[in-house]
Structure formats: structure tokens, C-alpha cells
Amino acid sequence: MRLLFVLIPAIVSSLLLSCGDTSKKIDTSKLTLDSLLVLYPDSIPLLVKKGNELIEKVQYQKALEVAAKAYRLDSVSFDTRVLYAEALINKPTRSADDMLRGHLMYKSLVKANPKSEKALVGLANTYTMLEDMDNSFVYINKALRINPRYRDAYILKGTNYRLKQDLKLAISSYETAVQIDPKCTMAYLSLAVLYELNGDAKLGMEKYTTAYQLEPKNTEVIYALAYAKENLGQTNEAMNLYRKMARLDSTYADAFFHIARIYQYDKPQLDSAIFYYKKAIKANQEHIPSYHNLGLVYEEKNDITNALFTYAKVLKMDPDYVLTKERVAVLKNKR
């Protein structure tokens, strides 16, 4: 669940240099947010805006780093505390303690400002994560009574209905969100999934495409569109998108994994598959699906020694990985 940007006070268009030459000024009116943060790395309003921007783009690890810095500099500001709570509950390696801490932070924020839609929906989101839908809806509805057009309240409503397997109401909620904010990438991605589940692959693809048009350099958006195209058998288009992902982020192991899988099953070109599975493993040395599929390719090439060697690496990381255990048993029985 992502929240809206926090608006910051207007930044003056020119600021004096600190070098002592008061005749020179820095014109900040045309600088990007990142450029401003280089100039003013400890600016709380800039850090909050950057953190919320990263959350909006589903870049949660980076958002957490920015939020943690802002929180260290100012743990009192309401906006800073909201940002940190949101980053904490969306932490990629979130623990139960992180979840509880975020929940308690949101309860404190709502108590401090019961008219804050952002805090109310944030608290509702933690109830959703705790599988307490009744309380989640209570706080969503409180937010909507304050602001009937609060986009994120409808996004969370859609999420709740989706978890309750009410596709009709989930779709309706997300459609309301995109009517309020036609540039809400997350809502389009959620709609795409729901329309697919509802048996309308064409409309689902339209929503994926809209999200991609809004954020053509967002690797999460590219991945969603590429995966949808791969599932529809549009493997060449999918591969081009996975390659784009890899160019944008060479550490994105799943991009290489899917290229390899297409070479393994759809082309097939086994040497190319091996090449890209190894690139996926280089990007993420714990990417178990790449190790497993690499073992399968070695089997197809009748290279049983390398297949077993690769499978051994999988089982060292996860002794209970069922697919690999099955292949090892089959190969051992053949000997």
C-alpha cells in the first residue's frame, strides 16, 4: 500500500552560497529533487518528499533508507513519522517486530492527528496486514468521511475486497482510484491482475500497458507487463522488456531468469539459457529458481555431473526445495 507525496513548503528560487561571496546565487527553481538533495542532504522536507516518491514507485528499500535518515534527523515531525512508519511496514525483509512497530506508530499518529487521512489509511493498512479487515474498513471509512476523494483509501479498499475474493467490489474500488488519480500506476497494475483473474486478459493487458506508459522506466512496472506478455505467448515482446529491465537495473535477477526461461522452453536455445541463468545467479547468488532451472538445462544436455552439482547448491540453500529434491531422486535412481 503506497501513500501520496507529502507536500513540502515552497523552496525559494535562489539561495546564497555559503562560500562568502554574496554576489553569487544558486537558482534552484529548475533543479530536480535529487539535485536539491545533493545541495541540501539534511533537508527534512526534501527527504520526506523523496521518501514518498520512492514509495510511490514501489522502491521500498531505497525509501526505507531515506525515511530512516529523515527520522534520525527529526523524529518529532508528523510527516517524518508517517514516512518512516510507511517505509517500515513495506520493508522488503519486514519482520513481525517491524509490523508491530509500524502498527503502534500509526496508532500514535492517529491519536496525535485524528483528522489525517494519511495516518488513518496507514493504520488501516496495518490492520489489513494483520488480517483484521473489520478494523481496516473502520479506519478507511473514517478517512473517506474526512476526504471522500482520498485515492489511497480506495486503493486499500480494493486490496481488502481482493483479499476477501470479491472481485467485483475490488475492481470498482480500484477504478474509483484511477478516476481520482489517472496517473496512479499501482491501481492500474492491480486492475490488470483483477481483470486477468476475471477472465478478461485483453482488458488486463490494457491496464498493464497504461501503467507502463505512465512509468516506462519503472522496473516493477516493466516486469509486470513483460510477465503478462510471456504468459500470453508474446515471448519476443516479453524478452525485449526483460532486456530493458536488465539495462535499467543489472542486479534485477528475475529479468535474466525470465530471458533464460524463454530460451530454455520457447526457443529453445540451451546454451543461451545457461548464459542467462548464470547472469541471474551473478546478480543474486541466492536465486534458487535460476539454480534449479540451470540444473534442468544441464539434464537436457545430458550433463548429469553439472546437473547434480547445481542441484546440490540449491539443497544447500534450501534442503526442502521440493522440485530439486525430486530431480535429484530421479537422477540417482538412473545410476
Protein model, in words:
This protein has helices at residues 33-39, 44-56, 60-73, 78-89, 96-112, 117-129, 133-146, 151-163, 167-180, 185-197, 201-214, 219-231, 235-248, 253-265, 270-283, 288-300, 304-317, 322-334, and strands at 14-16, 25-27. The protein has 335 residues and is an all-alpha fold. The chain has a two-stranded antiparallel sheet.
- Oligomer classification: single chain
Average pLDDT reading: 89
Q: In this structure, how is the largest beta sheet organized?
A: 2 strands, antiparallel
Helical proportion, percent range: over 70%
What percentage of amino acids are in beta strands? under 5%
Order of secondary-structure elements:
EEHHHHHHHHHHHHHHHHHH
Tell me the strand order in the biggest sheet. Answer: 1-2
- CA distance, first residue to last residue: 51 Å
Give the beta-strand count: 2
Helix/sheet category: mainly alpha
Can you summarize this structure?
By secondary structure, this protein is mostly helical.
